[in-house]
Amino acid sequence: MIHDKIGILMLFFFVAHIALHWRWIVFTTKNLFGRQREMKEGEIIEANYMPVD
Question: Looking at per-residue confidence, does 27 or 38 come out higher?
């Protein structure tokens, strides 16, 4: 009995959590799987490594 109530409560909180964060989920998914834009000249940052003595 308690197991069933806790399961229903967890489902409620899961649905509420997804509903509250839906815009973030959509934004992140679009950025992750969206078309990659081309890099413009000067956008690429090159790292210069100097040896440490």
Answer: 27
